[in-house]
Specification:
Distance between the termini: 13 Å
Helix content: 10-25%
Strand order of the largest sheet: 5-4-1-6
CATH superfamily of the largest domain: Spore Coat Polysaccharide Biosynthesis Protein SpsA, Chain A
CATH topology of the largest domain: Spore Coat Polysaccharide Biosynthesis Protein SpsA, Chain A
Order of helices and strands: EEEHEEHEHEEEE
CATH architecture of the largest domain: Alpha-Beta Complex
Low-confidence stretches: 125-136, 140-155
CATH class of the largest domain: Alpha Beta
Number of helices: 3
Length: 155
């Protein structure tokens, strides 16, 4: 990684209920690999050793070497984030979901570098052409379309 370096640990959130998806999303196959394998490869591409945060280890044992189980299952990704942060011993935690197979180690390294340069997280902001729609309360709100790095940075 070029630029500022940060001490971080990598985590992959897996094992959600996948109610809308209909089956375990982390084990869905995309381009010959499970979504979990894509996420693990992205985190490994940063140089980190990824740990899978899940409520049940067994379905993921063939794919990963390290796990964190949440003490409070069925609370969704926020509980997974809480468990990852609790397990993290470094100043930064890189937390990746399994539903982003296009994210690569290169993208994550750039986000880490951008965050280090700013002294904190590297937020993504909606582009100016993001879709704007009405809501039930009658207000118009921006819906994120594609994201871009804050402050005009580049991926």
């Amino acid at each position: 990684m070029s630029g500022p370096r940060v001490a971080f640990e990598g985590f992959v959130l897996a094992g959600g209920a996948s109610k809308r998806f209909g089956s375990d999303k982390a084990l869905a196959v995309y381009r010959g690999r499970t979504l979990l394998e894509h996420a693990l490869a992205a985190v490994e591409g940063t140089g980190a050793f990824p740990r899978v945060v899940t409520r049940e280890i067994e379905p993921y044992r063939p794919y990963a070497r390290a796990f964190i189980t949440s003490e409070r299952p069925n609370l969704g990704p926020v509980e997974g984030l809480r468990a990852a942060l609790r397990a993290c011993s470094k100043p930064w935690a890189l937390v990746v979901g399994t539903d982003m197979p296009g994210v690569t180690g290169a993208v994550l390294r750039r986000l880490l570098a951008a965050g280090a340069e700013r002294g904190g997280a590297a937020p993504a902001l909606p582009q100016a052409d993001a879709e704007v729609s009405g809501t039930p309360d009658g207000k118009r709100r921006r819906r994120p379309g594609r994201a871009k790095p804050a402050r005009g940075g580049r991926f």
